[in-house]
Amino acid sequence: MDLRSLDSSQLDAMREIANIGAGHAATALSQMTDRVIMIDVPEVSIIRIEDVGTITGEPDDAVAAVMMKVLGDVTGRTVQIFPGASAVKLVSMVSGGVEPEFPDGFTSEHQSTLKEIGNIIVGAYLNALSDFMGLLLIMSVPAIAIDMAGAVMTTSYLNFGEEQDHVLCVNTGMIIGEERIRGHFLLIPDATSLQVMLREMKLV
Amino acid sequence: MTDDRKRSRRSVVEFRAEAVDHVPVHIGDVKVADGSSLLYTVGLGSCVAIALYDPYERIGGLAHAMLPHPNMGRRDAPPGRFATTAVASLIELMEARGASRRRLQARLAGGASMFRDLLDREGLKLGRRNVDAARDALTSAGIEVQAEDVLGTYGRSVFLRTTDGQLLVTSVSHDDVLL
Known about the structure:
The complex is a heterodimer of chains A (204) and B (179). Chain A has helices at residues 8-33, 84-95, 108-133, 149-157, 191-200; strands at 37-39, 43-48, 62-72, 76-83, 137-139, 143-148, 166-176, 181-189. Chain A is an alpha+beta fold and 204 residues long. Chain A is built from five helices and eight strands, in the order αββββααββαββα. In chain A, strands 1, 2, 3, 4, 5, 6, 7 and 8 form an eight-stranded antiparallel beta sheet that branches. Chain B is of the alpha+beta class and 179 residues long. Chain B has helices spanning 3-18, 83-96, 116-119, 126-140, and strands at residues 21-24, 30-33, 37-44, 48-54, 59-65, 105-110, 144-150, 156-161, 167-170, 177-178. Chain B has a five-stranded mixed beta sheet, covered by helices on one side. The radius of gyration of chain B is 16 Å and the shape is globular. The model of chain B has no long low-confidence stretch (mean pLDDT 90).
């Protein structure tokens, strides 16, 4: 399907899905960190594949990115992006200890901690979606990359085997605590799963 | 930060400082420059950067392609999106600027396999296919690939200096490479 043919009610439904998922993720994250979490209104847009590198900011920003595959009735990926300064604050907030230097001092131990945090966020997000849509959504083990945002984003939105001119961007920004730790949560359903989700919400 | 890393960062600063014109090449772009220019593109993951250089005329060209080649029957997609059509487009633009095809040297960077543990099981290996498509298109055009820094599991940025055709490849956690 041509994503540009999605109408505003369908895009609104995706925004609502992201809002529900992020709301639950924020609750889980708030309990884990004992901080107030603020979530932005999810940004849902159809963009050219050439533009995915700048979804979260400058393409050469060094970020920590946690990716998981989504399996079950809906298949695709979730990607969480933390700017370097936010990743180190989040990790030291959860596990204690001094903030490491990013990226050189961000050891495999720090990376494991961030993957665990990612697990909890994605678990809560997908559970909420499962309940809302009555579909089974399971997550894979996490993978992490400490790399440039552009490289992470193009890799996340490509590699589906069947590439199109446009992609659906479902991006929810979060701010954690007074430390103002920033993160992005991206839901990337594959083309078939987008149809499945819309059908479940009676929008196709 | 280690001494090596500090040195790494310095070479980018030097490359930037030396050049009069800085020419960004965004994803899907194909651009050509001469004089004292720095053509650069950042955040290559599985994408491939194709750099061409005519050492006699001192003309450089750079493309940032996302996919190997256009699907059958698709003719409306922008040429810079695909490695094969980006090579053709680069050659055309460089010849129009006065470069000679038989003098062109090619350098490649990118084509990584990030999140390999998750994504490579799908067997798509997009990074490798991008590099292979670029190499094949260059070989067919009779252009030699002089040097490359490709594959692996990490992202790269590249900076092409048009005064001597040198290509600086940088990354977040690996040493710089000069091609």
